Structures are given as structure tokens and as C-alpha cells.
Amino acid sequence: MSAVLEVGQRMTSSWRQPPTLIVRTALAGGPAHKLAGEDVLAIMAHLGYGTSCGALFALLSRRGLRPSPAVGVGYGLLLWLISYAAWVPAMRAIPLPQHDCPGRQSTLIGAHVVYGVVLATTLRRLRRRSWT
Questions:
Q1: Are 75 and 116 in contact (CB under 8 A)?
Q2: pTM (2 decimals)?
Q3: d(CA 53, CA 76)
Q4: DSSP code string of 10-72
Q5: pLDDT score at 94
Q6: Where are the bilayer-spanning segments (predicted)?
Q7: Which of 17, 51, 84, 125 sits a CA distance of 20 to 30 A from 31?
Q8: At 131, is the pLDDT very low, low, confident or very high (cuts 50, 70, 90)?
């Protein structure tokens, strides 16, 4: 997911990645306020959020949601929608998708699709190994 964000950022414009802007907003009061060590904080926050959402997916898949790549894509897109059309703009870290920098939202969608596919595929493989 991070690789997709990095490539998208380099190809489209000089926008900052959302995890950095979210950390700036949460800890410094706004996306324009640079923090010392913000890159490390953003990586840790993003990893923690992604891991938590992955654990939720694993729990949901134990209750009947089969972890197929298609379901993973849907889950990744649901996370994008909840994040970038709801709580991230509500905290004023980045604008709503229709008002955001050109290219950032398509990059974010692509990154969440990759996240969902990798998450579902990994979970399926882990579960197959645990049964053999």
C-alpha cells in the first residue's frame, strides 16, 4: 500500500500523504503544522491502523465472510470510503474527495484495493497452512 502511495505521489503532484497530514492534524492542530519526527509517527500510526483493520477483517471472516480477493477489494474500498469521505475530512486533515488534490484520491483508492487483495490473500494462505 505504501508503495502505491509513493508512486502515486511522485506521478501526480507534490501532495503530502494522508497519514502525515492526519498525524499533523491530530497532534499539532492542522495539516500545515510540521512536527519533528512526523514521518516516523505517520508510519507507526498508519501501520497500527492497517493492522487493526486487518484484525477486524480476520474476525469478520471467521463469522462467515470468506476472505477472497473480491471481498478484500470491497473491504479496502469500504475503509477508503469510511476514512476519506467521513472521518479524515471531518478532522480537517484533507478535503472531501471531490475537493481534494487531483490524483490523490485515485491513488488512495488504488492503494486500498491493493491492501484489500493482499489482506484477503494472506489470510486465506495463513488459514490453509493452519489446517495442514
A1: yes
A2: 0.88
A3: 9
A4: HHH-SPPPHHHHHHHHHHHSSTTS--TTHHHHHHHHHHHHHHHHHHHHHHHHHTT----HHHH
A5: 94
A6: 40-60, 72-94, 106-123
A7: 51
A8: low
